[in-house]
């Protein structure tokens, strides 16, 4: 049930292609309009919607099929509609991550997790994660991590259910007394 081109009912899980940037943009803007987007994403709808098409072309090209440093996986329904997505960013040892911390391990960083509301609870998120994890392990990462807003209980429960454990690292959110919690999954 995982990996590139694997079916889930009428869905196929696969990597995006560079020329699919308009669909990447549409799904991201949809995700940022979700009622819990403020808990799930650092980026706002207004900021993303203001980006020029070149931004979306470049963003998609960096995470498209065949990329070595990142990969975006989508769930595509038989009618061509994209119903979910997750992106893996590879972080190399010795680099500095978005928190200002030096990366100690070659690791995958899962970002942009989104499943349309009507497809939640169907097992789709698990299959997207399987594809992202399979790709990560195949690219030599030692662990995979993600961050979750401390008030995003639904996401936190899901991440724990699929094996992610709290690392103890917390990152304060800008202009807020809230935090993001790091969860990790070691290669097993």
Structure description:
With 188 residues, this protein is an alpha+beta fold. The protein has one domain: Gcn5-related N-acetyltransferase (GNAT) (Aminopeptidase, 3-Layer(aba) Sandwich), CATH 3.40.630.30. It has six helices and eight strands, in the order ββααααβββαβαββ. The chain has an eight-stranded mixed beta sheet with strand order 1-2-3-4-5-6-8-7, with helices on both faces. β5, α5 and β6 form a beta-alpha-beta unit. α1 packs across α4. The radius of gyration is 16 Å and the shape is globular.
User: In percent, how much strand structure appears in the residues?
Assistant: 25-35%
CATH-derived architecture: 3-Layer(aba) Sandwich
Global shape: globular
Order of helices and strands: EEHHHHEEEHEHEE
Give a concise summary.
Helix content is 29%, strand content 31%. The protein is of the alpha+beta class and 188 residues long. Helix 1 crosses helix 4 (53-62).
Strand and helix map with partners:
Elements (H helix, E strand, L loop, with lengths): L5 E3 L2 E5 L5 H12 L4 H4 L4 H5 L3 H10 L7 E8 L4 E10 L15 E9 L8 H15 L4 E7 L3 H9 L3 E8 L6 E8 L2
Parallel strand pairs: 5-6
Antiparallel strand pairs: 1-2, 2-3, 3-4, 4-5, 6-8, 7-8
Helix pairs in contact: 1-4
Keywords: Acyltransferase, Transferase
InterPro entries: Acyl_CoA_acyltransferase, Bact_Acetyltransf, GNAT_dom
Protein name: GNAT family N-acetyltransferase
Question: What distinguishing features does this structure have?
Answer:
transferase; Aminopeptidase; about 190 residues; Acyl_CoA_acyltransferase; disordered N terminus; globular; alpha+beta
């Amino acid at each position: 049930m995982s990996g590139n081109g694997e079916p889930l009912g009428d869905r196929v899980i696969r990597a995006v292609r560079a020329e699919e940037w308009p669909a990447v943009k549409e799904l991201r803007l949809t995700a940022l309009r979700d009622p819990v987007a403020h808990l799930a994403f650092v980026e706002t709808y207004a900021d993303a919607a203001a980006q020029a098409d070149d931004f979306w072309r470049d963003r998609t090209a960096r995470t498209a099929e065949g990329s070595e440093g990142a990969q975006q996986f989508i769930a595509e329904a038989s009618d061509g509609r994209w119903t979910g997505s997750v992106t893996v960013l590879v972080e190399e040892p010795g680099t500095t991550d978005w928190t200002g911390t030096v990366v100690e391990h070659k690791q995958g960083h899962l970002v942009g997790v989104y499943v349309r509301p009507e497809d939640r609870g169907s097992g789709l998120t698990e299959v997207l994660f399987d594809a992202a994890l399979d790709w990560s392990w195949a690219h030599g990462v030692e662990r995979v991590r993600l961050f979750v807003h401390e008030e995003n209980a639904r996401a936190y429960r899901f991440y724990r259910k699929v094996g992610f454990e709290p690392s103890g690292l917390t990152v304060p959110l800008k202009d807020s007394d809230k935090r993001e919690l790091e969860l990790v999954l070691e290669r097993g």
